[in-house]
UniProtKB/TrEMBL annotation:
Occurrences of domain Aminoacyl-transfer RNA synthetases class-II family profile (ranges): 1-319
Chemical reaction(s) catalysed: tRNA(His) + L-histidine + ATP = L-histidyl-tRNA(His) + AMP + diphosphate + H(+)
Gene: hisS
Top class in the EC scheme: ligase
EC identifiers of the protein: 6.1.1.21
Localization annotation: Cytoplasm
Name the record gives this protein: Histidine--tRNA ligase
Length: 416
């Protein structure tokens, strides 16, 4: 029955893969601490209107990909397709703009987009991201990029490259849009229906179209870097200087436009040969457009599934600390009870212990202990209880450590 399978484009995170997710999320969070970023959590769904205004109504996300439905109160709500608009909404609603700036936030979220499912392209996927509000300085663009690079470094990833571009601002963009429209005019008839609509409303969006024929047409389109106003030009130069100062390698790729309408000035992508893992940039007008004060902003999001794909591809060994320190086997009821109590006491001391809940024979218990990779095993029996001693066998070399059964601290220390 298809209904009893996970919906298309969704995936279970199975327990055997949990350590990979923990590794990515913990590395991200630990690195965030060093950069003074604090966590924010917003609801899984928002009023649909927020995304129409925040993400932009000519984007693929809004035009094709949103999980929108009416709730029982007849409100149109949408599962969040991205993290930025909701965080800007929360920033404004909770008046965080009154605090000393900048506001430096990070998030870890599920995102929902009704996409054509392929490898690395899901309908529920997960992102770690950053939004920094209040600074217009190019040093902040560079810091946000430096943070993304630091996360990758701390994950051990080496094969991802940084591409940057500048999308200009409302001052310089009209000239560019004019030039772009002039260029596209000749090929208008060959554009896909969505891009025909975009032609008047937002011609730059056509540069990000995934349709083959549109891609072909836009290959030789004029580039925005040739149309930048002085302010944007200076900003871009400074961002590059700061990246140079930090020794962060990058390439300028005038072809990047990104899939969201709100970007201004710096945008960037971090990618390998197969996919883009990270996308971000500056969006200086969104806070005001969503009803807040005029305040600049810069951020990015990294796809957790794609980072895990990159880790697998680069063959990076991910530390797993999810093994058992001790398996307690037993012979007889009294010994089982003593072991059951001991397991609980040791867990309170921070030791990972497993015990028999399956009625296994001692022989089967030891096989199981081996299977789960317990570092030590022990078998409690009448002798051990009578002598008040536990024999801890270190599995790697078979060495036996004898410790008083009552001395929980010493047992715990021996196992560490
Ligand atoms: P793409 O061009 O691949 O569609 P995007 O521009 O839509 O990406 P963003 O909205 O910037 O992507 O999201 C940032 C990151 O989130 C991407 O770089 C990617 O790692 C991840 N991501 C986006 N969409 C998906 C998806 N459908 N499945 C898995 N990961 C995704
Ligand atoms: Mg997309």
């Amino acid at each position: 029955m298809a209904e009893m399978q996970a919906p298309k484009g969704t995936k279970d995170m199975l327990p055997q893969d949990a350590y990979k997710w923990h590794y990515v999320e913990n590395t991200f969070k630990d690195t965030a601490k060093n950069f003074g970023l604090k966590e924010i959590r917003t609801p899984i769904f928002e009023h649909t209107e927020l995304f129409l205004r925040g993400v932009g109504d000519t984007t693929d996300i809004v035009q094709k990909e949103m999980y929108t439905f009416e709730d029982k109160g007849k409100r149109s709500v949408t599962l969040k397709p991205e993290g930025t608009a909701p965080i800007v909404r929360a920033f404004i609603e909770n008046r965080l703009f009154n605090e000393a700036q900048p506001t430096k936030l990070y998030y870890v979220i599920p995102c929902f987009r009704y996409e054509n499912v392929q490898k690395g392209r899901l309908r529920q996927f997960h992102q770690c991201g950053v939004e920094v509000f209040g600074s217009k300085e190019p040093s902040m663009d560079a810091e946000v990029i430096a943070f993304a690079m630091e996360v990758l470094k701390n994950l051990g990833l080496k094969g991802l490259k940084l591409n940057i571009n500048n999308l200009g601002c409302p001052k310089c963009r009209p000239n560019y849009n004019e030039a772009l429209k002039n260029f596209l005019k000749e090929n208008y008839d060959n554009l896909c229906p969505t891009c025909k609509e975009r032609f008047e409303k937002n011609p730059m969006r056509i540069l990000d179209c995934k349709e083959k024929k549109c891609k072909e047409i836009t290959k030789s389109a004029p580039i925005i870097l040739d149309f930048m106003c002085e302010e944007c030009d200076t900003h871009f130069t400074k961002v590059k200087e700061y990246l140079d100062l930090l020794g962060i390698p990058y390439a300028v790729d005038p072809g990047i436009v990104r899939g969201l309408d709100y970007y201004t000035k710096t945008i960037f992508e971090i990618l390998n040969d197969d996919f883009t893992a990270i996308g971000g940039g500056r969006y200086d007008n969104m806070i005001e457009e969503l009803g807040g004060p005029s305040m600049p902003a810069v951020g990015f999001a990294m796809g957790i599934e794609r980072l895990i794909m990159a880790l697998d591809k680069e063959g990076i060994e991910i530390p797993s600390n999810e093994s058992y320190a001790l398996y307690i086997g037993s012979r007889g009821d009294e010994a089982y009870k003593a072991g059951f109590k001991l397991a609980n006491d040791l867990r309170s001391k921070g030791v990972a212990v497993e015990i028999n809940h399956m009625g296994r024979s001692v022989k089967a218990e030891m096989k199981y202990a081996n299977k789960i990779g317990a570092k030590f095993t022990t078998i409690l029996g009448d002798d051990e209880l009578a002598n008040n001693v536990i024999k801890l066998k270190r599995m790697i070399d078979g060495e036996i450590f004898e410790v008083s059964l009552e001395n929980i601290d010493e047992i715990a220390n021996t196992l560490k």
